[in-house]
Automatic annotation (TrEMBL):
Protein name: VWFA domain-containing protein
Alphabetical list of InterPro entries matching this protein: VWF_A, vWFA_dom_sf
Short name of one Pfam family: VWA_2
Lineage: Bacteria, Pseudomonadati, Acidobacteriota, Terriglobia, Terriglobales
All copies of domain VWFA, residue ranges: 228-326
Amino acid sequence: MITRYGKWDGLDLDQFNLEQLLEKLSDFFLQSGFSQGGWSRRIQDPDQSLEALREAIRQLIRSGELLDETDLKALQDASGALDENKLDELVDALIQRLLEQGYLRATPDERGTPTPRPGQGRIEKDEGARIKFALTEKGMDFLGYKALSQLLGSLGRSYAGRHDTQHLSTGIEAFQSSKPYEFGDTLNLDVNATLLSAIQRHGLGVPLEVEYSDLMIHQSEYTSSCATVLMLDCSHSMILYGEDRFTPAKRVALALTHLIRTQYPGDTLKLVLFHDSAEEVPLGRLSQLTVGPYHTNTAEGLRLARRLLLAQRVDMRQIIMITDGKPSALTMEDGRIYKNSMGLDPMIMEATYREVAQCRRSNIAINTFMLADDPYLVNFIKRLTSIAQGKAYFTTVMTLGEYVMMDFLRRKQKKVR
């Protein structure tokens, strides 16, 4: 059976709000392999196949979240029930629109199913499970904007601004006062002040003699740049005990990415996952990340984050670490991974504290967000924070975004001495 994409007569797809559709599909695209069922220990790959996407959109339409009453009536048959043929035609047309507008990309799975091209016109249904969909950079940027708006909207804050400091510089943006030019300053010349200085010394005449001491330049507010590494714990515990803690953390990463890209273009944000080991992951892969492997190698995550931050020439460096467990793994000097699933192993803990101390000596701030409140974890975080002289928050998946964004914004308002 072949599904042909086309413009459905019952709805003007050119006027359809695709962003609203994408926002409502965010749970589908950001799912992290969480298996429902209480204390389940299963980790499953998120199903983002063509048929799964179709079913997600069908459910939105059936629930009345996507279409108004008039459009829903156009989908009904003579008996008043939804016409499944019309529903399928509309769903496929919406998917095609998402592809054409650049919000989604279709990719083959490991079996190598050919990728449908925008405008190709058809996808065979029996191969629907062999085509996977993922967010493009445009789609991720939109969801990041929505996540940021929701997180900061609950705080009643605006997210415009930069890293304000008490200092003045000679950059491009003019401040209200000028100063004499000094060697090394940006030659952002204040023409009026320069000419006035020359006139005051020599009087008004032609030619006007301008000397080195007459040069006056605009001052601007000095704004610092900040490099941030977001460390996400993707160990098995992030989806255990009947709670998905990893998906909310991914939403925060999307919000931070959008905030930095749009409001702080001089800043950088890198993503580090830590589990049995640690790895840097491109932000473009964020929506596809899942939980696993099992253990928590905090020391290796901090070591990698510190190396990434020290490679950047910026005024401020910080690590935002989101975790829910105590360190339970350590990378040995020979590259082997030492693991202790019980956690709080003395050798692992001391190696972690040493890495925290290295970050402090490198002037890297560590802000920790703990998604659990076990007494042993509280003591571990207290010592970590004491060594790092950073901040620690014990929060939940419901308030994680607010706490992360509040802390990030406060850091941006902190003066650089």
